[in-house]
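Researcher: We're teaching a course module on how sequence relates to structure. For the next exercise, students receive a sequence and then see the predicted structure as tokens, so they can try to spot secondary structure elements on their own. Here is the exercise chain.
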Amino acid sequence: RPGARAVRASLLLSPVMAAYPDDSFPYQGLLPKKETGAASFLSRYPEYDGRGILIAILDTGVDPGAQGLQVTSDGKPKIIDIIDTTGSGDVNTSTILKPKDGKITGISGRTLKIPENWINPSENYHVGLKNGYEIFPKTLRERIQKEKREKVWDPVHRNCLAEACRKLDEFDSTHTSLSQAEKIEREELQTQVEMLNSMEKKYCDSGPSYDCLVWHDGETWRACVDTSELGDLSNCSVLRNYSVAQEYASLGLSEMLNYSINVYDEGNTLCIVASGGAHGTHVASIAAGFFPDDPERNGVAPGAQILAVKIGDTRLSTMETGTGLIRAMIETIKYKCDLVNYSYGEATHWPNAGCICEVINDAVLKHNVIYVSSAGNNGPCLSTVGCPGGTTSSVIGVGAYVSPDMMVSEYSLREKLPANQYTWSSRGPW
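Model: And here is the predicted structure for the students to work with:
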């Protein structure tokens, strides 16, 4: 569950705003750079904008194709790696096959044609199968299911049901006294109608199934996801681990979901990393977004780099798990991150207690990581702060604040009110 944010900058990534700039719009209210002193600091020390700092965003994942998250202010890649610690994108690719006549039979049963320009000295391909709904965000999954039902299922099913009902009505209108054979014929027609009605109620869309191939080209691991679902791999993207080349692709025009990959266990595990929601991208842009042609939209530290760690499990509606958090902290320490932004939180009975808090304390005290977490969304009552934002001594807890300028730009208030903490922001003390 995404927790409280220190600011609400919902329009930060708005393509409409970028396409149709309005000089009268109060851009300064989108981010509290003025209120926090960041704007005045950067005006005096423009090169002290986060350069050389690595921020770990522990959230729903970060979209590698988002505007403002491509490069830093000094030209470095903005996102150095994208990692899924939840397991929602994992694919078992331990099955190894060799192509025959340039073709492989995938786990789905489809025939996969290997493009001639692929380099694979060993000719060993690790194959696996991934259900798309395991990596689709909830809103995308619901949209695809609705569109598929309306465009693919409903027209055919309604025609079949209408035809079955027509035949049954026609039979009843032309037969009064039924023989044994006619009774059997009518029972068959009645059963067809009942079966079609039952199929409508039991309709289930299991989602797309993507064949996945992993191989080593002699230098590095590569992977290809058959997003066509036709075995036509020549039109599918071949990717390397994101940390190697910052490569990503899209699952399709309808899905509009970017993904990257990571290969583990000597090719036996492929991880397809896709954002479980927009929250992580939103947070990353607030922290370090860089828009060279529109600096008003820059984040607080446009020179900083991002380590995107997905801790929100797509299969659990982006809820975090203990295992995912432990793996995330391992990656944070491995990459020697300077700062962690954690916009999640849960209730707890005791402060500074539990396995997760112990790992966070170790990262802060032994590895000099600054850990910033949301206070929670359970205000305005007192003692509503969550864990770890308000209950762990090594963590900096942040509540949600709104300034008069933010009220105007983000909520269109015609009359300014005094600066205040959001009502829903959790309060201490613990």
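Model: If you want an answer key for the exercise: The chain is about 30% helix and 20% strand. The first strand starts at residue 54 and ends at 59.
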